[in-house]
């Protein structure tokens, strides 16, 4: 990428999109194009095509999506599959029609089979059943990946897909009905500390293993791929190591300063038993995550206190 080229970041107000904007600006990319939902509804195909034709971006980072945790995914299944399918289809198709040859699509590690071998390689896609609690969202992200792959094959575009592990960090969603496990734990631990509670309840058994990536590292990985002129393929992005939900909760309460004990609500679903990405492809290109879990959670908690807690 050249510093003067025009870059459209779709979803710039979200956690990933805002991190991408910060990363690009820090690297000297000043010609960024962003639009709020009021300015551009990505669900409306005609509006998206008109915008792309008029702006003619050289690069697109497709970070716009409907996202949420287990409860949101399992409750609003139709919304998650419909909105994500429409957004990604509108942007990818409009990019091709307007001659935008460089696009990076943000997927999710939930695209992989629920019980596939660990760590998860990119080629394990579509080798088994998905986790049922977030299957609609996963199917939409698989469709986005295949959309990019198909346009590359048929039209010669250069669309890359990245599959991040569980993300957290600045601008996260701390709504307990919609958030992912880590921001939910941060909020619950903080509120338990303020109330002086003696126990913190965590959903599930605490035994599932999860990998967590600080969102600023994710943004750097995306920009790295574009700067390396990678033109095709699917790339897992993560740390390459995981922890149990119980261990995660222990780390969160240490950061937050909650002095009570942890209990587990086993009536709540655990989701996938383990989800650890094989990040060998990114490592071979020369990129590795640099933010440790304790450091990342500390930064995330600082953001929560500054931006989300009242």
SSE blueprint:
Layout: E1 7-10, H1 15-26, E2 32-33, H2 45-55, E3 59-62, H3 70-75, H4 77-97, E4 102-106, H5 135-155, E5 158-164, E6 166-168, H6 181-195, E7 199-203, E8 209-210, E9 212-214, H7 215-227, E10 234-237, E11 243-244, H8 245-256, E12 261-265, E13 274-275, H9 280-285, H10 293-308
Parallel strand pairs: 1-2, 1-3, 3-4, 4-5, 5-10, 6-9, 7-12, 8-13
Antiparallel strand pairs: 8-11
Helix pairs in contact: 1-7, 2-4, 4-5, 6-8, 8-10
Question: What keywords describe this structure?
Answer:
310 residues, alpha/beta, Rossmann fold, three-stranded mixed sheet, 10 helices
Q: What is the radius of gyration computed over CA atoms, rounded to a whole number of angstroms?
A: 19 Å
N- to C-terminal distance: 41 Å
The ordered H/E elements are: EHEHEHHEHEEHEEEHEEHEEHH
Helix content: 40-55%
What percent of residues are in strands? 15-25%
CATH architecture of the domain at 7-172 and 213-238 and 278-291: 3-Layer(aba) Sandwich
Form type: globular
Helix-and-strand structural type: alpha/beta
CATH-defined topology of the domain at 7-172 and 213-238 and 278-291: Rossmann fold
Largest sheet: 6 strands, parallel
Low-confidence runs of at least 5 consecutive residues: none
CATH homologous superfamily placement of the domain at 7-172 and 213-238 and 278-291: NAD(P)-binding Rossmann-like Domain
Helix tally equals 10
Mean pLDDT: 95
CATH top level class name of the domain at 7-172 and 213-238 and 278-291: Alpha Beta
Side by side, the strands of the main sheet go: 2-1-3-4-5-10
Give the beta-strand count: 13
